[in-house]
Specification:
about 35% helix, single chain, Rossmann fold, alpha/beta
Length: about 240
């Protein structure tokens, strides 16, 4: 079997990539799917989340793939287990063109979280243009979707971005609220799929369109598009 890989990326920092990465990992792990987070961000937010995660929770592996000048990482920290079936690539803000090209060669699906500000939305629109040009998305049959993240209210701030991505044939999946549930969970190494459903029913519903888009699983209490399948690519991984 091959690895299904998902890249979480935005050139703009502070858009909540860790929230998307960690909760997506918790979803797959909670269903018994061997899952690995490959953290390319020098801030290592996803790996710090993993360090807080209890051994009693479903296992999620972590690989530190961030470039660090003058630091030779131990091989164990760079390995992606051969058993991995869902690989989530957590990219740094402002990736170089070379890194962006490398990441695009390793993924089938791209999730772009964007924060609710005019500056973030403008920067994201420019990044999407660059991604389509450099990443050869169409040529490689890579699927791309945008997620509104850290949403505080129902203001129509995202409407211009929704129109823009729709004109490019890119999905605008959902709006993830700026909820304390996500904040409290990440501080404990948890995702919303590790919590009792009654504690995070609203958060589970708003995250389901992401799961559906990636896997074809029907969203909870929402209407979704027909199941979507993606081509599986092989990734060179190290033995664990």
């Amino acid at each position: 079997m091959g690895i299904n890989s998902t890249l979480v990326i935005n050139a703009k920092g502070g858009v909540g990539k860790t929230t998307i990465t960690t909760n997506l990992a918790s979803y797959f792990a909670s269903r018994g799917v061997p899952t690995t987070i490959a953290d390319y961000d020098p801030q290592s937010s996803s790996l710090n989340w993993l360090a807080q995660r209890s051994a009693d929770l479903p296992t999620i592996h972590g690989a530190d793939l961030a470039p660090r000048a003058g630091l030779a990482l131990q091989n164990g920290r760079r390995q992606i287990p051969l058993s991995t079936r869902q690989l989530i690539l957590d990219a740094p803000a402002g990736p170089s063109r070379l890194l962006l090209q490398d990441l695009m060669q390793r993924t089938q699906s791209v999730l772009i979280p964007v924060a609710p500000s005019a500056i973030d939305i403008h920067a994201t629109a420019n990044f999407i243009k660059e991604l389509l040009l450099i990443g050869q998305v169409r040529f490689r049959h890579i699927r791309v979707a945008v997620i509104a993240n850290r949403v505080r209210n129902a203001r129509p701030v995202y409407e211009p971005l929704e129109r823009f991505v729709s004109s490019l044939g890119i999905a605008f999946l959902t709006r993830i609220s700026d909820s304390d549930v996500y904040v409290d969970a990440v501080e404990k190494g948890l995702g919303i799929f590790d919590l009792p459903p009654e504690q995070c029913a609203a958060e589970l519903r708003e995250f389901q369109p992401i799961v559906h888009w990636l896997t074809g699983e029907a969203p909870l209490e929402t209407e979704g598009a027909p199941p979507v399948t993606s081509n599986v690519i092989q990734l060179n991984v190290a033995r664990a």
